[in-house]
Amino acid sequence: MSEKASGQTNGLSLYAYNKLLIFMCLLGLGLSLYAYTVELRLEQNKNYKPLCDIAEHMSCTKAFDSEYGKGFGFFGKKSLFYKPNSFFGIVFYSMVATLSLSNSPVAVNGSLLLIILSNFASLYFAYILYFILADLCVVCIGTYIVNVVNLILITKKHKKVRLLENQKLSASQKKSE
């Protein structure tokens, strides 16, 4: 297989971007599963103290148990979307990891869109965490970091896929001439 066909035109290969994206999604999935478990335990036992409750102003419980911890803070209790935010994280990281298995432009564009949206969500939740709740949630911050790294990776993968698609198009146009 030629260098161009494998996606190794410069920088990392598409294979490497895929593996890194999947690895980061597994980290995000792990953080989301942990958060979901903590939230379920808190619902069962209000005295439960998770490992992520480090200090008074460094507490995941404060974030998870707040009005912003479910339904993104703006869906009501009767809404289909009134679920722990970590549930949506589980779905999101699973979707992006699955899409990362493909190098098709549609899958890459879908991943790019989802990851951009997740970064806007991270900014929204970081604002709430710091300015409204006056808290520092290490699990939350971990997901924000995962989302930023994913944005960097998917942007580079997107650029590489576009470059390869343009090269294929140019090659097919030259053949038809």
Roughly what percent helix? 55-70%
Strand content: under 5%
**Residue runs with pLDDT of under 50 for 5 or more positions:** 1-8
> Helix segment count?
6
- Shape category: elongated
EC number: 1.17.4.4
Subcellular location: Endoplasmic reticulum membrane
Keywords: Disulfide bond, Endoplasmic reticulum, Membrane, Oxidoreductase, Quinone, Redox-active center, Transmembrane, Transmembrane helix
Family: Belongs to the VKOR family.
Attribute tags:
177 residues, mainly alpha, 6 helices, elongated, quinone binding
Strand and helix layout:
Layout: H1 3-6, H2 14-44, H3 60-64, H4 85-99, H5 105-132, H6 138-176
Helix pairs in contact: 2-4, 2-6, 4-5, 5-6
Could you characterize the architecture of this molecule?
- Keywords: Disulfide bond, Endoplasmic reticulum, Membrane, Oxidoreductase, Quinone, Redox-active center, Transmembrane, Transmembrane helix.
- It is found in: Endoplasmic reticulum membrane.
- The chain crosses the membrane at residues 20-38, 87-108, 128-153.
- Its EC number is 1.17.4.4.
- InterPro entries: VKOR, VKOR_sf, VKORC1/VKORC1L1.
- The longest helix is centred in the C-terminal third of the chain and has 39 residues, at 138-176.
- The protein has 177 residues and is mostly helical.
- The protein has one domain.
- It starts with a helix and ends with a helix.
- α2 (14-44) runs antiparallel to α4 (85-99), α4 (85-99) runs antiparallel to α5 (105-132) and α5 (105-132) packs antiparallel against α6.
- It has helices at residues 3-6, 14-44, 60-64, 85-99, 105-132, 138-176.
- Helices cover 69% and strands 0% of the residues.
- The protein is elongated and about 75 Å long.
